[in-house]
Write a structure and sequence with these properties.
2 domains, alpha/beta, globular, six-stranded parallel sheet, Rossmann fold, binds nicotinamide-adenine-dinucleotide, 11 strands, single chain
């Protein structure tokens, strides 16, 4: 079976150039550039890489970006004040608070404090609830990126059986809702599997589309995958590798080498879902600047 690698890096480039054109157009008619702010607390290495990518991507498409950094000792009250200032700043269209936050800060409280009209991560219950009801909302970035990828590669979803493994609020649960919805990319019959699922391998084997969002390197093995399945690997796992300069390599949740010989489409890690996640954040920010979801 011939396999198509879903090239998130290339697709992200294409969408970036579309956004760049739109931003240039906005500027020619006298509108200001969309403005995204990112709040980064502490020095978690993965979070630093993610935020750096997001800020760099903003610059590449002509957005304005602001990075607000604090060390991990910041109090919850101080962070809530930063969120309040961003909510009230008319120059900022959307902002994100990079997770995870230090243990002494209640992530839920911070998420709820973000004005849902500026919640371009789509984590606020208002956006999540609207998404679940099929109303316009900021979609969480990773699921939105997966939808874009399925759409742009013309992968049929209607009537397909999709098995999502992992039920996080930012990936597994929202993508399971989105793919089951009556929509252009949707109309799947969805199974949401997780750590308590029995006979997981059998469940996954029934899937026409597999979405792996678990956080365990090489978790999905070739014998769990149906011939011809579409495999979307969300996982980003650092695996020790002394022979490389960094001392680690990135691996997905799917045993790529072996699974790729059986499936019809597969995302690589890195270069698959990751770049699409960043693009989705830019798309949400553009929507915020154009007041596409919330009019005032
Ligand atoms: P999480 O870490 O919050 O949760 C993991 C999920 O996997 C849980 O719902 C759990 O039920 C399930 N799980 C754990 N062990 C299992 C098992 N043995 N069998 C079945 N299910 C099991 O999930 P997350 O935040 O969605 O992250 C998942 C992975 O995706 C991580 O590697 C993360 O780094 C990566 N991620 C990547 C992107 C991206 O842009 N590519 C974005 C977000 C997360």
């Amino acid at each position: 079976m011939s396999v198509t690698i879903l090239d998130g890096k290339q697709l992200a480039k294409t969408i970036k150039s579309e956004i760049t054109k739109e931003v240039a157009q906005m500027k020619t008619i006298g509108k200001r550039a969309p403005h995204l702010a990112a709040v980064l607390i502490g020095d978690d290495p993965a979070s630093q890489v993610y935020v750096r990518n997001k800020v760099r991507s903003c610059e590449q498409v002509g957005f304005k970006s602001t990075l607000i950094r604090h060390d991990a000792s910041i109090s919850e009250a101080h962070l809530l004040n930063i969120v309040k200032d961003l909510n009230n700043n008319p120059d900022i269209d959307g902002f994100i608070v990079q997770l995870p936050l230090p243990k002494h800060i209640d992530e839920q409280k911070i998420t709820l404090a973000i004005d849902y009209k500026k919640d371009v991560d789509g984590f606020h219950p208002m956006n999540f609830g609207r998404m679940a009801q099929g109303l316009p909302s900021y979609l969480p970035a990773t699921p939105y990126g997966i939808l874009q990828m399925l759409e742009r590669y013309n992968i049929p979803t209607a009537g397909k059986h999709c098995v999502v493994v992992g039920r996080s609020n930012i990936v597994g649960t929202p993508i399971s809702i989105l793919l089951s919805r009556k929509a252009k990319v949707g109309n799947c019959t969805v199974t949401l599997a997780h750590s308590q699922t029995q006979n997981l391998a059998e469940e996954v084997k029934r899937a026409d589309i597999i979405i792996a969002a678990i956080g365990i390197a090489d978790f999905i093995k070739a014998d769990m995958v149906k011939e011809g399945a579409v495999v979307i690997d969300v996982g980003i796992n650092r695996v020790e590798e002394p022979s490389v300069k960094e001392g680690y390599i990135l691996k997905g949740d799917v045993d790529f080498e072996r699974v790729a010989t059986k499936c019809s489409f597969i995302t690589p890690v890195p270069g698959g879902v990751g770049p699409m996640t960043v693009i989705s954040l830019l798309m949400n920010t553009l929507k915020a600047a154009n007041k596409e979801i919330y009019k005032d």
